[in-house]
């Protein structure tokens, strides 16, 4: 199954329903008056973050989401019903981006978070609302306000605590498989992993989520290999585990390639806390380990941990190191819920207003001439005479 991490969708909130033009007409009731109710509000476009979803695959098959239009108003001052909302259920961690794919409009970080993204248009006033002291029988109504519509991108960034980074074949997926219940594909050719995998690590009584992403190569930021688009999946992690294949001739060069790509990617990735692991130690002689570890420590200026995902040698200390970093980072910066995006586009009125010069009140008959009333020929005649 292909992992789908973004989708383009069209959203439209419902238009408001039109107001009604109606008059009270009852036998023996002398002064009826206008009683056309208001139109109903259009349905909203609601976006909801739910647990248990981890892809946006549904949005590949259905791209258009339209909320229902508000119902029209009716006589006897009955207002139209509100249109039904349309609710998009997305995985936690989904961002809504503008068509430019850059401007973040909404960030859903908490399960259950529910945001009205596009509000339905308001219903139009019925003629009862246009009654004034000088015009007691208006035939004016408002057709309702339009809903909002726009194309947006849904983008999912998996929320993992730790991210695995490295060149292809560094042993990232092997590490994930060794430390979690995840079963990623592992093979001795580059780009075995084509989409991110997540796994839950248990270290003592604690748990954290680790993400394995496709390997990076030199020039990934220019699109080489699978490019750097998967880095978005580790952008939000609290710590990175940078794995280096210890069997490579020049481990320092391997390290620097990845560092360079992180810097080219931008954001705060390069500044993120990094744990460096010299991997595949089982395949190395002791003196090789010492030599490569020392070279890496000199190049990075940080401690380098030695491990083997294949034999699990040195893996536990790495997990505790990651866990400590995650806990520390959570203390410094607890999870933040981003404020929902607010809509600031004013809605222009549409449609024409009905001309209200025509007053249906007939002084002589003491009745209103109702437009809807097709069989009142006599009234119409009387009215023509008046006009
Ligand atoms: N000897 C040894 N081999 C390992 C170790 N970890 C991984 N390998 C081997 O290295 C090869 C690549 O392993 P993967 O886990 O698929 O590497 P990856 O970093 O996920 O690779 P990509 O998904 O292509 O980026 C496989 O043949 C693994 O069996 C290790 O600790 N020791
Ligand atoms: Mg892999």
The strand line-up of the biggest sheet is: 10-11-9-12-13-14
Q: Which term fits the overall shape?
A: rod-shaped
CATH topology of the largest domain: Rossmann fold
Kindly estimate the percentage of residues that lie in beta strands according to DSSP: 15-25%
Q: How many domain modules?
A: 3
Rg computed from alpha carbons, rounded to a whole number of angstroms = 33 Å
Tally of alpha and pi helices? 6
CATH evolutionary superfamily of the largest domain:
P-loop containing nucleotide triphosphate hydrolases
Instruction: Report the top-level CATH class of the largest domain.
Output: Alpha Beta
Second-tier CATH architecture of the largest domain: 3-Layer(aba) Sandwich
- Major sheet summary line: 6 strands, mixed
Uncertain ranges: 336-363, 370-387
Compute the average pLDDT: 83
Secondary-structure map:
Blueprint: E1 6-12, E2 45-50, H1 58-61, E3 64-66, E4 86-91, E5 94-97, E6 104-107, E7 114-118, E8 149-156, E9 162-165, H2 172-179, E10 197-203, E11 206-212, E12 239-245, H3 251-265, E13 274-279, H4 286-300, E14 304-306, H5 315-332, E15 361-362, E16 367-368, H6 377-386
Parallel strand pairs: 1-3, 2-4, 9-11, 9-12, 12-13, 13-14
Antiparallel strand pairs: 1-8, 2-7, 5-6, 5-8, 10-11, 15-16
Helix pairs in contact: 3-4
Bound molecules: guanosine-5'-triphosphate (GTP) and magnesium ion.
The site of magnesium ion has 6 residues, from helix 2.
Short description:
The protein is α/β, with parallel strands linked by helices and 387 residues long.
């Amino acid at each position: 199954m292909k992992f789908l991490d973004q989708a383009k969708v069209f959203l439209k909130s419902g238009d408001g329903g039109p107001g009604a033009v109606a008059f009270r007409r009852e036998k023996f009731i002398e002064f009826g008056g206008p009683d056309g109710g208001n139109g109903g509000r259009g349905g909203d476009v609601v976006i909801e973050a739910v647990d248990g979803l981890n892809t946006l695959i549904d949005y590949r098959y259905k791209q258009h989401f339209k909320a229902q239009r508000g119902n029209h108003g009716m006589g006897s001052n009955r207002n139209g019903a509100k249109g039904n909302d349309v609710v998009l259920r997305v995985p936690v961690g989904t961002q809504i981006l503008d068509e430019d794919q850059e401007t973040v409009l909404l960030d859903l970080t908490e399960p259950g978070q529910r945001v009205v993204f596009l509000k339905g248009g308001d219903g139009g006033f019925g003629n009862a609302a246009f009654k004034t002291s000088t015009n007691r029988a208006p035939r004016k109504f408002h057709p309702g306000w339009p809903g909002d519509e726009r194309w947006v991108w849904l983008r999912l960034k998996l929320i993992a605590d730790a991210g695995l980074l490295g060149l292809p074949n560094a042993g990232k997926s092997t590490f994930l498989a060794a430390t979690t219940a995840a079963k990623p594909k592992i093979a001795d050719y580059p780009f075995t992993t084509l989409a991110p995998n997540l796994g839950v690590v248990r270290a003592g009584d604690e748990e954290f989520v680790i993400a394995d992403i496709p390997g990076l190569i030199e020039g990934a930021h220019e699109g080489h290999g699978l490019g750097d688009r998967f880095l978005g999946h580790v952008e939000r992690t609290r710590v990175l585990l940078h794995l280096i294949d210890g069997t490579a001739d020049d481990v320092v060069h391997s390290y620097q390639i990845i560092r360079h790509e992180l810097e080219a990617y931008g954001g705060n990735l390069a500044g993120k806390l990094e744990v460096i692991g010299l991997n595949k130690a089982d395949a190395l002689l002791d003196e090789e380990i010492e030599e490569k570890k020392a070279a890496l420590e000199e190049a990075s200026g940080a401690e380098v941990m030695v491990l083997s995902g294949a034999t699990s040698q040195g893996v536990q200390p790495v997990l505790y190191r990651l866990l400590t970093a995650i806990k520390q980072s959570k203390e410094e910066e607890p999870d933040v819920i981003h404020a929902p995006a607010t809509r600031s586009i004013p809605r222009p009125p549409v449609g024409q207003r009905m001309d209200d010069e025509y007053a249906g009140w007939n002084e002589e008959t003491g009745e209103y001439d109702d437009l809807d009333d097709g069989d009142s020929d006599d009234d119409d005649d009387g009215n023509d005479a008046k006009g």
